[in-house]
Design a protein that fits this description.
The chain is α/β, with parallel strands linked by helices. The chain is 44% helix and 23% strand. The chain has 3 domains: 9-92, Arc Repressor Mutant, subunit A (Orthogonal Bundle); 98-167 and 273-296, Periplasmic binding protein-like II (D-Maltodextrin-Binding Protein, domain 2); 169-271, Periplasmic binding protein-like II (D-Maltodextrin-Binding Protein, domain 2), CATH 3.40.190.10. It has helices at residues 9-21, 24-31, 35-49, 65-92, 105-110, 112-122, 135-143, 205-216, 230-238, 248-251, 255-258, 286-296; strands at residues 54-57, 60-63, 98-103, 127-132, 149-153, 162-176, 196-200, 222-227, 244-247, 260-264, 271-278. The strands form 3 sheets. Strands 3, 4, 5, 6, 9, 10 and 11 form a 7-stranded mixed β-sheet that branches. Helix 2 (24-31) crosses helix 3 (35-49). The protein is elongated, with a radius of gyration of 25 Å. The model has no long low-confidence stretch (mean pLDDT 91).
Amino acid sequence: MTSRSDLGLTSLRLFEAAVRLGSLSAASAEAHIAISAVSRRIADLEHQFGTRLLYRDIRGVEPTPAGRVLAAHAANLLRLAERVSEDMAEFSDGARGLVRVAANPSAVNQFLPDLFSRFRTAAPEIRFEVREGVSGDIVRDVLEGHVDIGIFAASVAHEGLQAFPFRTDSLCVVVPAGHRLADAGSLALRELFDEPHIGLEDGSSLFAQVCQRADEAGHPLTVAFRVRSFEAVRRMAAAGLGIGILPQAVAAPYAEVDGIAVIPLSEDWSRRPFLVGVRERAALSTSAEAFLSYLIG
């Protein structure tokens, strides 16, 4: 039997395609090779491992228990091979290192500008592609390999990722400067139940957490408006259209210019931890590993 460590990427790529597409013919079409060649490659893998990897019937194929394990490993190995090619392409293009990062608005506004600035001073050859999104979408993007590193609220589900502690922020209440609550030293959520709220768009982990806490207390919030940005929350609160709940670091610096009062939220849960997540740390490019180490070091 061939050594089990002697794995060919072509065979793994064809096997992964057959599992993903549920068909040997679809895998052959995607790879532009004969179906007989696909079948032979998979048969070779089955011989190599001494076990059946696919169930075959007239409807197509599906993995056996052993096949499911191999498919998961194959996906990671193929992703690592793609990263090797990307890293080498960076050299041939005269650049070095591309790191794809996704972060939620809280992280983008509060933490990343200074972190990027300091890191790039030490490693100017590394380039970044940064996308902003809601935490749930970021977890999915990391799992699906669209980005290397994700920064998201710890409150969202992130099974399947390797996650590391990052930073913590604090929430506050934003009201017009002349509002009845403007002079409060701090506020509890129960004191806000009768107020109209300016919420962030669906998918925002911040506003989802606030709404969940209100629901648990038996007082669902009255949401007057939903907007897409922290700035829009501040502007609409200043216009007297409702109150907002935002990270204190993105509200307090604009209090005077926006004409708002910023009051700390006194709930224990108002201190929100963030995580840095990757699909598999061992499969990161050298540049992505360097940036991850910087973020969590």
